[in-house]
Structure formats: C-alpha cells, structure tokens
Amino acid sequence: MSDLQISLLAIGAAIVVAILAFNWFQERRFRNQANAAFESPVADVLMQPGSAPSARDPHKRVEPAFDANDAHDLAEAQEPHLHIDSNPVPTSAATTAADDMAHVMRAAAEVSAQPASAAAPIAVAPYDELIEYRIRLGSDGVQANALADAFSHTRTLGKSVRWIGVPVGATQWEEVQPWRDLHYQQLVVTMQLADRNGAVLEEQLTGLCEMMQTLAQNHGLRIACDDVVEALERAQAIDRFCVDVDVLIGLNVVARGEGAVNLTRIVREAEGSGMVLGMDGVFQLLDSRSEQLYALCNHDAEPFSNEVVEGQTSQGVTLQFDVPRVPDGLKVFDGMVAFGRKLANEVGGILVDDNLRPLTDTGIEKIRTQLAHIYERMEARGVPSGSRRALRLFS
Length: 395
What we know:
The chain is α+β, with helices and mostly antiparallel strands. The protein contains 10 helices and 15 strands. A 6-stranded antiparallel beta sheet has the order 10-11-12-14-8-15, with helices on one face. Strands 3-2-4-1-7 form a 5-stranded antiparallel beta sheet, with helices on one face. Strands 5-6 form a two-stranded antiparallel sheet.
C-alpha cells in the first residue's frame, strides 16, 4: 500500500472521528435544551418567596403593560426547539451513514430524556374577575389547620370571603376546609366587591391583605395581592350598576270597597299552585334550584301559618317579584300576573299596584317593557338575571 493511500485512509478516519465527535456534541446540547424546557417552567415573579407587594401611592393607579417582545421571548423560553443550520455540510456516503446513526441516537436520547409520566397541570382557579378581589398564596405544602385562625377572622370583615385551594398532589381546586388532615400547595382567597349592603370599603380590602400577609409570614408562604385601588374602582362601578337594576315589583290583591279578602281561599290557591310556606310565614314559588321566583305575603301584621281558620280574612295580600334574582324573568312575571288575577277572581277582589291603582293590561305591558330594559342591561354587563353572579351581588 502506497504512502498516498495510507494518508488518504488516515484523513478519512480523522474526518469520520470528527463527524462523530461533532454529532455527540450536538446531541448533548439538544438533550440539555430539552431537559431545561421540560423541567424548568417559567416562574411567576409575583409568587416568589419574599415577593410581598411593594409600597405604592394609594391614590395613583398603575396600569399593567405587556410588551410584544416580552411575549415573543416568553414563548421561546417555554417552547423547546431545535436550531437548524442554514449552511449544512455537504453529505457524502460516509457522512450520510454517520448522520443516520446520530439521528437514531438523538431520537432515542430525546425520548429517554422526557419523564415517564408528566405531571398533570393544575386547573385555573375559579375566580370571578368581575365581582371579586383576589389574593394568591403558594407553598410547598401548608397544613390545613394552620389556616384555621385566618379562615375564621376573614368572616368578620363584613363582606363575603371565599377560600379555595389545591391539595398537594392534586390538580383541581376545592373549597378550603381547615379541619381536614391535608396540605395545600396553592390557595386563592377572594372578597366580594359589592352586595346589597353596598360596595366594599378600602379598610376591608386592606384588612384582608394584611391578614393574609401575616399568615404568609408566619408559615413561609408566597403571596401576591391584587391592586387595591383598581379593585375599589371596580367595586364602585359594580355598586352603581346594582343600584340601577335592583328592583322589587309588588302586585296587590285587595277587596273592593271597604271589605276584606278571604284568606282561607287564598292559602288554598297558593298551595294548589305549588307554593310552599317558609319559616317567615311567606309563601314562595321555588325553581329547581330552590331559589325563589316570587312570594306571597299577608298585608296584616300576622304572617301566614300552617293552620288557617276557615273564613279568616285579611286586608289583602301582596305578590313580590325580586327582579335581578329571577331567571327568565319576563316569563316568571307573566306567571305571577296570571296568578294574581286568579286570586282576585277567587276572592272577588281586584289587582292593584303599590299606589292601589287598578292594574290594566296597558299598565302590565309598561312594567314588562321596563323589565325587558333591565334584563338587557344585566346581560350586557355580564350579570344575567338569576345567574350565580346575580344571586351573589343581590344578596
């Protein structure tokens, strides 16, 4: 064998070794990228240890900003990807075989680098961004009974407070029960921003946040409180809306002239129509959720009772319709009007409004038109009548 042939073989062997070394280096780099992508999720800077909200001017509103470049960088950081060389090395028979082998090795390495069973993601917390103020808490696992004192104290703040959490090892949110023997990895505490008592006050929101900050400090939890100023503005807007649509309609059945209505007959009609007598002495027509559609109460000081004396009379009765709490309100209102007219016919009375003016078809239609406008406003605001959100706001 000549020196030239020996040199060519040596050069060929060196090229093959170089290609294999290059492929090993590339495969190692790709494996590290894949591991980083799958094992190092992007962190929420608000939920890092020691990241309590910084002091801010309580009268200065700060609007959140989100830059398009940030979105691009975040997407690239979260998505594993391979770099494709725009100037690949020309292939030959020897390099093609080496590349094929490297491709097989790389595919096997990528499969082995992935965990056998990836953890299921935690569901999004059931938080109502329209009517609630939110505080988020994170931990490596806080004992449920460590929350008991704060859980009880939040009930004294004057607004509805909800506690929901994800137990360690779980993926679904549930109502927090401090007496259970378990640990929570994530918690969300919310306060309702408005109800029929008015909008939430600043001291109620700050009181809740301070209470949760103390809890976080005592138990090494990560905490993030939503902006108080923005929540107060939202609360005022919601309260103004609620005042505008919070309407109670009353229809009265009274005797003609100076007489009285037969209460016994009215009770029988109420029971025959499926109404039930509540503990407060008021008859109620309930829906499938046991929520009231409309009510029937006695004009006299004495409420209805289970035992009605035959021939008992009253000055009159009133049908009440709580507008924002009733689903399919126009249909329910029509049913209440029909029932009121039936009661009036049964006792020889007359159907009147709160000013004791007889209700004609024209008067009823005017009320229906007003109701339709109210329900349109509620739908547009995202608070459909009778919805869970409406029942919470108008409670």
